[in-house]
Amino acid sequence: MAMRKMYLCGRSEAGKTTLIQALKGEETIYDKTQYVNTWDVLIDTPGEYYETKSLACKALYCYSFECDLEGLIVGADEPFCVLVPGLHTCLNRPLIGVITKVDAPNANVPMVRQWLEAAGCSPIFEVDSKTGRGIAELKAFLEEPNPEPITLEQAIELQRQGKPDW
């Protein structure tokens, strides 16, 4: 079954490339991402895009046109938050959250979940690419068909109701 195309963004060493390998059932081989890989349904980006203010927004906007949804990847062992609250409001695609490294010894999943919720990610998946935890659930979500697009009138009505999922 085909997966929806997802753009993955996140800090260096957040586990983006390892997550892609796990979703594809490939052997985990660390390979530093040097450029944007758009050759598949999973768009992998260098962490420097996410870590550099001038590149982060441009990459999010640019690659959102090539995907069905955007995935914000954050390691459960992150020591601090660099996410912008309400990030989803500037995107034209759904924003999901993926917490990687949930089985790491210094993982703080509840803290990272709060960061992703504040950024506007929904749903949020907890995974560990090395142990396989949560991979099946994320893959099943990506294999769901895209929801039907809504009309402009429907979007305006949802906005009036204050609903974020328009």
Verbal overview:
The two termini are 27 Å apart. The protein has helices at 16-23, 47-51, 53-64, 109-119, 135-143, 152-160, and strands spanning 6-10, 42-43, 69-75, 95-100, 124-126. By secondary structure, it is of the alpha/beta class. β4, α4 (109-119) and β5 (124-126) form a beta-alpha-beta unit.
Features:
6 helices, globular, about 170 residues, about 35% helix
Question: In summary, what is this structure?
Answer:
Helices cover 33% and strands 14% of the residues. With 166 residues, the chain is an alpha/beta fold.
Spell out the helices and strands N to C. EHEHHEEHEHH
Write out the strand line-up for the largest beta sheet, numbering strands in chain order.
Answer: 2-1-3-4-5
Largest β-sheet summary:
5 strands, parallel
Count of helix runs: 6
If you compute it from the alpha carbons, what radius of gyration comes out, rounded to the nearest whole angstrom? 15 Å
In the predicted model, the low-confidence regions spanning at least 5 consecutive residues are none
Structural class estimated from helices and strands = alpha/beta
Q: Give the overall shape.
A: globular
Return the average pLDDT rounded to an integer. 84
First-residue to last-residue Cα separation: 27 Å
Helix content: 25-40%
**In total, how many beta strands?**
5
What percent of residues are in strands?
A: 5-15%
Question: Topology of this structure?
Answer:
Blueprint: E1 6-10, H1 16-23, E2 42-43, H2 47-51, H3 53-64, E3 69-75, E4 95-100, H4 109-119, E5 124-126, H5 135-143, H6 152-160
Parallel strand pairs: 1-2, 1-3, 3-4, 4-5
